[in-house]
């Protein structure tokens, strides 16, 4: 079944159609683009043709940003078309700030082992052992980051941190536990080679 595209009208022409005293602010925000669908937004669900056209599998790419606003999706400039459609279909919404969301966001810019560590209540300025409410840090291994994606990784991860938290991103070349075990097979080897924990991470 082919679904005709909804007609497009200038925003000024649609103002009478989009007046809704119960959600005026929301509708104003959603209709801030230059062109919008002709049908009133609250009636989309009652219009099978428009609903099919606006399904994330069928919608034109330029409509995905509007659809994301409608369902609470979070799009970023680095997302592919397929990733945008997936986000509209299954929006992260309230999941922003959860460790799983931060890990998934970081791994979109990573390869190989894609090692990600989330430290809740941690401020790198205070260091380990100091409780830091309102802070979190996401640490990734530099060797796992896709070439040229360092800035995009940091930007997208921080975009997932809620406004009431302060986020930190560290891209590190320190060793991890697997590398330490491979370098120092026994505890005696470890004690004979390094002086402290920081030395261990740098030397492995």
Word description of this protein:
- It is an enzyme of class 3 (hydrolase).
- Keywords: Hydrolase.
- This is Phosphodiesterase/alkaline phosphatase D.
- Its EC number is 3.1.3.1.
- The chain has helices at residues 11-14, 24-30, 48-53, 64-71, 81-89, 99-107, 150-159, 177-183, 187-193, 197-203, and strands at 8-10, 35-37, 116-120, 135-141, 166-172.
- The protein has 204 residues and is α+β, with helices and mostly antiparallel strands.
- It has three domains: 8-93, no CATH class; 95-173, GMP Synthetase, Chain A, domain 3, CATH 3.30.300; 174-204, no CATH class.
- Helix 4 (64-71) packs parallel to helix 5 (81-89) and helix 6 packs antiparallel against helix 7 (150-159).
- The radius of gyration is 24 Å and the shape is elongated.
Q: Strand-and-helix sequence, N→C?
A: EHHEHHHHEEHEHHH
Q: Helix count, per DSSP?
A: 10
Helical proportion? 25-40%
Count of individual beta strands? 5
Kindly give the count of domains: 3
- pLDDT averaged over residues: 76
Strand content: 5-15%
Distance between the termini: 61 Å
Biggest sheet, spatial arrangement of strands: 3-4-5
Low-confidence stretches: 6-11, 33-39
Biggest pleated-sheet summary: 3 strands, mixed
Rg, alpha carbons? 24 Å
The secondary structure category is alpha+beta
Shape, principal axes of CA atoms: elongated
Enzyme class: hydrolase
Protein name: Phosphodiesterase/alkaline phosphatase D
Keywords: Hydrolase
Organism: Patulibacter medicamentivorans
């Amino acid at each position: 079944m082919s679904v005709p595209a909804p007609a497009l009208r200038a925003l000024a022409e649609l103002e009478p159609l989009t007046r809704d005293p119960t959600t005026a602010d929301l509708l104003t925000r959603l209709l801030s683009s230059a062109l919008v669908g002709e049908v009133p937004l609250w009636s989309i669900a009652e219009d099978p043709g428009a609903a099919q056209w606006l399904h994330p599998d069928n919608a034109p790419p330029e409509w995905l940003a509007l659809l994301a606003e409608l369902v609470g999706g979070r799009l970023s400039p680095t997302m592919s078309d397929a990733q945008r459609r997936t986000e509209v279909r299954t929006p992260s919404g309230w999941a922003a700030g959860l460790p799983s969301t931060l890990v998934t966001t970081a791994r979109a810019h990573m390869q190989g082992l894609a090692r990600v560590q989330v430290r809740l209540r941690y401020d790198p300025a205070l260091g380990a052992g100091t409780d830091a409410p309102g802070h979190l840090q996401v640490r990734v291994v530099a060797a796992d980051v896709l070439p040229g994606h360092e800035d995009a990784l940091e930007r997208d991860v921080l975009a997932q941190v809620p406004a009431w938290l302060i986020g930190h991103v560290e891209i590190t070349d320190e060793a991890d536990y697997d590398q330490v075990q491979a370098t120092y097979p026994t505890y005696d080897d470890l004690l004979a080679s390094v002086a402290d924990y920081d030395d261990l991470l740098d030397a492995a």
